[in-house]
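ARCHIVE CARD
Drawer: 12
Card no.: 0347
Subject: one protein chain, sequence and derived structure
Cross-reference: see card 0346
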Amino acid sequence: MNLTTDFNENQDSIVTRKVLVVDDSPVDRHLVGGLVNSQPGWQVFFSSNGSEALEFLKNSNPDVILTDLFMPDMDGVELVQKIRKDFSKIPIILMTAHGNEELAVRVLRAGAASYVPKKLLANELHATLNEVISSLRNEKSIQIVNNALVCHEFHFVLETDIAHVSPMVSHVEHLVGQFNFCEPNSMMLIGVALHEALTNAMLHGNLELDSKLRDDDEIYFYTLADERKKQKPYAGRKVMFGARISKEEIRFTIADEGPGFNPSNLPNPFESENLDKVTGRGMLLIRTFMDHVEHNEHGNQITMIKKLKAS
């Protein structure tokens, strides 16, 4: 089943996800709306600027907002700040164009959940929508917070299968919710960062897939991933995932069984030439949404920490 829909056993129906597209260009709105509707389970609404979007949100509650960075009345930073203030539970995905990299990073830091380069919308839009919705879904189901719990630590060994990533992220989000650790939007961003790190460990660590392959040919990239899962030396490799969750911080440690790499050779994801590529997207989101990120000397283990912000 597509991640954009849920099966309701009581009503025997498919739940439609609502997305608000904010863009001042009629052509771009038509293009993005068509891409969203190319898969079932989505209903699209449109606003031509930030003011219209905020007015729409007073009377409607979309599941996700997809917005351009530059609009006549307000830029992406101001729009995200206003939405975060009054509609904090609605995730925001940016549509970025080459040359807007610095503003995109500012908007992510202001509270946007993810981004998709405009030139990659056809290939990456639904994957990004699904990832953000998956991270948000579990938060909505948490009703009771276990305030007596002081600390929880656990360890998992995962097969190299990206289908296992979303269930694991949902489980962690449930545990974070037990602490009332942070506002719902922050919990969703932690989930996005964890999703990226686990996926990187499987695809780039255990399967040794070069990120540049995905920029060149995404279909070949995932076809090769499926082939390598059955071949030596990749077959049978695991991902070790540990987490320590307390009222002071969340600490994730993710290790793969690949050969590793030299962490000093990682490109800076915040540089303009890297922001417009799929290859740098994961590390940019991880470093933006977590407070501390480091690799071990072999490059096959990453530690991510999110500190509790004093209220």
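Annotation on reverse: The radius of gyration is 19 Å. The first helix runs from residue 26 to 36.
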